[in-house]
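Q: Got one fold?
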Amino acid sequence: MFFTRISAPLEPPQSAPGAFLVQDMWDDFGFKTSFTLWCSNGSRQIQIGTCKIACFGIERGRVDIPETFDYLTDQYFSLGVDESYYTQLRDEIDPSTRETVLRALKDAAFDHYIFEIASSERAMRKSLLRSTEPETVTGQFHRIATGGPTRSKFDIEYRQRSPASGQRWVRLGLEADPDAMPPTNVHALIGSNGVGKTHLLDTLARTVLKARLQPIDGSRLTDRADNHAYPFANLVSVGFSAFDALEPLAPTRDVGYQYVGLKKRGESGLKGPSELGEEFAESASACMSQGPVRARRWRKVLERLEDTDPIFQDHQIALLADANAEGPDAQDLFAPLSSGHKIVLLTLARLVEHTTERTLVLMDEPEAHLHPPLLSTFIRVLSELLLDTNGVALIATHSPVVLQETPRRAVWALRRAGDDVRVDHPEIETFGENVGVITREIFGLEVTRTGFHAMIEELAGADLNYEDILGAFAGALGAEGRALARVAARRHRDGRR
């Protein structure tokens, strides 16, 4: 394959066979490494996508490559900006030519040795890996570059010792299967207040950031398929409650980490509206500038939100992803939204920006800020995003709406008896089930001890008959309450408690 370098805005000649690298002078943290690769057989021209090329020892500035060449020398290394670059090479070019192109450009995803020796280079860390985790390069990018599938199934088990017994484990299987229907990318963790859901999320987060040989408090992660040293490549922790116990953690070199929420890392106090607005604007801009795949995902997220929520539709949020139009200012659009709509929009923007294959998203009680229709929309859009990126989420929740969007095999019920903690799946299928049925069958024991159930039981326990109970509520009792009152009154009348 014969390569020719061209300076933007020129385009490759239509009839000339070969490969063409159109150099972009975009400044990327002090580096100018971006090239758009085109391949042509003389009659058909294919735009492969954007790659970045650097050379060993460069500290900043433009990377000079020969005007024409067959192979770059060993002083160079390159990397595609996202998976679409490798997908185009896999799908549009024959295997022999694909391998020739990747070898000629000294591609670090195709050749693990190149990535290993170049990983400490400043250009690799600051420019080529700007929006990509190392695990994504050696995992997904390498798999596609060698002709494999874009997404793959993974199955990771989390084990945490039960406080009451050093021998018993609390086990969760965090599985992502691109072909599963309904999708299993969103998992739900349920249980009574105080049972240990938040503690489990916090310990899981800290365990993710450690290698599998460095367990924390007896907890460990096991990759049941590929045996990765770091089963997850990336961790995103989401929390918007001022009472949220999940603190922002320190990132590590081996696993990417992002915190999305109100708390400031290393500082006391909470972020204000203007800070959150700035954060959203920066993230929205990054979604559009970090390659075509992220831009496509961002556009899809915004369109889905517009389609399902009238507030988002009124604000025409999809214009934020219109590269061909003068879109609205992101901060101006964000400012007048309700707190719930801001949380949804900011969270999804940050997830589009940072979610890669094998990303784990942890979230604690999103229903605290979202009314049910918006919560349902958020969970469905989140599931679609994670399915597209091959990531997985674990959401601690008390909401039947979340369970309604989650299949039974991805719902984990945490139960405590004294110091003994166990986890299992619900007895009923939850995906697509009626909210009332989920509330009764899964949260039933908690519900019948609280709220209007407890009030009715108290009146029946005071020997009021059915009519007296209705009178005590002055007729303001719904159908379910009336049915409960009739049963409770009869039970107490017959001497059964």
Q: What stands out?
A: The first strand starts at residue 3 and ends at 7. The CA atoms of residues 2 and 372 lie 58 Å apart. Residues 448-493 form one domain.
